[in-house]
Amino acid sequence: MALYNFKKIMVVPTAKDFIDVTLSKTQRKTPTVVHKHYQIHRIRHFYMRKVKFTQQNYHDRLTQILADFPKLDDIHPFYADLMNVLYDKDHYKLALGQLNIAKNLIDNVAKDYVRLMKYGDSLYRCKQLKRAALGRMCTILKRQKSSLEYLEQVRQHLSRLPSIDPNTRTLLLCGYPNVGKSSFINKVTRADVDVQPYAFTTKSLFVGHMDYRYLRWQVVDTPGILDHPLEERNTIEMQAITALAHLRAAVLYVMDVSEQCGHTLQEQLELFNSIRPLFANKPLIIVANKCDVKKISELSEENQACDQLLAHRVNTKMKGKKVHDVLNRLHLAMPAKRDEKERPPFIPEGAMMRRKAMEVDAPKRKLERDLELELGDDYILDLQKYWDLMNEDEKRDKIPEVWEGHNIADFIDPGIMKVSVREIPAIRTQQLNLCARCPYICSANDVTSLYLILIFASFRGSVWQECGSLASPRPRSLRQNRTPRLAPSAPPPSPAPPVSVRVERKTNTHLEDRV
Fold first, then answer.
1. Among 212, 223, 245, 346, which is disulfide-ready with 236 (CB 3.0 to 4.6 Å)?
2. In the structure, what pLDDT confidence band is assigned to residue 53 with cuts at 50, 70 and 90?
3. Phi (first) and psi of residue 207, to 5 degrees
4. For position 145, what pLDDT does the model report?
5. CB burial of residue 121 (10 Å; 0-12, 13-18, 19+)
């Protein structure tokens, strides 16, 4: 039976778009100039060509739509029943049948009007026949508006279905909602199924793939099933029933022994008994999930299921008629012992290190994006924890980039940590004396700011040693933009003895002495 790739189905246009595209293409791809003085056979051929071209475009596009969509009688019963559950088989067949009828009607309309056009005796009558033919074709297609919209919705949903191969090695997970089926498939495969603490998180079939004994396996995660009659089950539950009924797979019935899913063990056993007929002729594993209290020291669930399914498939093939052809090609060579010396396998240390480096089960480092999704509104981005500093205690220092309009990076002094607390009052007194002698250089507010900085050590490495921030050489941008302070009208005080202040700037590598 044919297995369809539903993602290759072309988009189904709406009736309006269908008509607009076809008529526009007819106008572009056929001749557009005709005169009444042309011979009548030339005029007839001109309009016949337009009618035939329009009919052919409608025919080709409708044929492609009908060919792209799967025929329920030709595909695997799993897909046929799944489409019946999702889209209603009768509605689906009616929509395709109406498009097929519309295609035949358009062909008949074009055939009739081409025959009538052979008897047209003037340009006007041929043109009116052409308009009538194209109008009837468009009317037929307008009546298929609902069918085209329905098929487009089906196409979009089919393209989102997982690619499940009904004939390959398969593990099928089933059970009550919220018992851990999606978490299991996320662990053993490369799938990424949404896991939430509420029921019916999984609303459709999901598939993942894994490798076991050098073979590729597909693991199918089904929506949760509740214990009630078949006719009362909704579309979500019927998808799981369809997979159980038609897929040849090892069934993993997942049970929550902790009863955190909201259903007792008795209810889970009753569900198991109600759907047990669907497990006929299939390997069955009962998985005791969330067994934190009751430890089960056995093989992992996926290994048990794979081993049993392999044994089941081998036994099935051994009972067939082709087993002798396969066994004749198999030969197991066992070397004879040459002595009694034990020769254990030797694995180089480099290979062991490489295998350890390739471990995929190692815990992954959480990225900031993962933390943001996990914490939600409580997440706060903190880039300081990744700073690579010699002193780890300095990561949380609150160092602003700009202080009172000045760039702090221009006034960094690495020797600030060498200043003791006892020296701070002396530095403040020295700076106040300098400001008193040179009021045009700095003010008392600048010295007070410096004093507070030294007291609280909030900058830890960024201090202005010459009159706060103004006495040191400023960056060129600050010197150009600052308005010079006018000297007072009173005569300046007598010159004071020179005071040498060492200034080290990050932007200037040399040292200066200012008096």
1. 223
2. very high
3. -130, 140
4. 93
5. exposed
In this prediction, residue 163 carries a pLDDT of 84
Partners of 286 in the β-ladder: 253
Measured in residues, the chain has a length of 515
| Contact between residue 212 and residue 306 where contact means Cβ atoms under 8 Å apart | yes
CATH number of the domain where residue 62 is located: 1.20.120.1190
Using CA atoms, how far apart are residues 113 and 109, in angstroms rounded to an integer? 6
Q: Which two tokens stand for residue 392?
A: 């780890």
CA distance 383 to 387: 7
Q: Which H or E run contains 284?
A: strand 284-289
pTM for this prediction: 0.55
CB neighbourhood size of 219 (10 A): 25
Examine residue 360 and state whether it is found in any structural domain, yes or no.
no
E strands, 135-260, in order: 170-175, 206-212, 215-221, 250-256
Of 112, 138, 159, at which residue does a domain stop?
A: 159
CB atoms within 10 A of CB 224: 24
Beta-carbon contacts of residue 486 (< 8 Å; ≥ 6 apart): 440
In 7-144, which ranges are continuous DSSP H helix?
Answer: 15-29, 40-68, 77-87, 89-117, 123-142
**pLDDT tens, 141-200?**
999 999 999 999 999 888 888 888 888 888 889 888 888 888 888 888 888 787 777 677
Cβ neighbours of residue 62 closer than 8 Å, sequence gap 6 or more: 99, 100, 102, 103, 106
Instruction: State the alpha helices, DSSP H only, in 438-515.
Output: 444-456, 476-481
pLDDT at 440: 60
The 10s digit of each residue's pLDDT in 7-43 is 888 999 999 999 999 999 999 999 989 888 889 999 9
Distance CA 83, CA 95 (A): 14
- Retrieve residue 25's tokens: 């293409």
Claim to verify: residue 149 and residue 195 sit in the same structural domain: no
Do 185 and 256 fall into the same domain? Answer: yes
* Per-residue model confidence (pLDDT) at position 360: 58
Mean per-residue pLDDT, 111-138: 93
Give pLDDT tens digits for 404-449: 777 776 766 666 666 666 777 777 787 777 777 766 656 656 656 6
Q: Which domain holds residue 31?
A: 6-159
Q: Which helix (H) or strand (E) holds 371?
A: helix 368-375
Instruction: Judge whether 21 and 13 are in contact, CB under 8 Å.
Output: yes
Q: Among 159, 191, 209, give the residue marking a domain's end.
A: 159
Beta bridge partners of 512: 503
For residue 58, the model assigns a pLDDT of 96
pLDDT, residue 330, reads 61
Sign of the dihedral through C-alpha 162, 165, 166, 172 = negative
Question: What's the domain count of the chain?
Answer: 3
Angstrom distance (rounded) from CA 225 to CA 233: 8
Do both 112 and 151 map to the same domain?
Answer: yes
Decide: helix, strand or coil at residue 90. helix
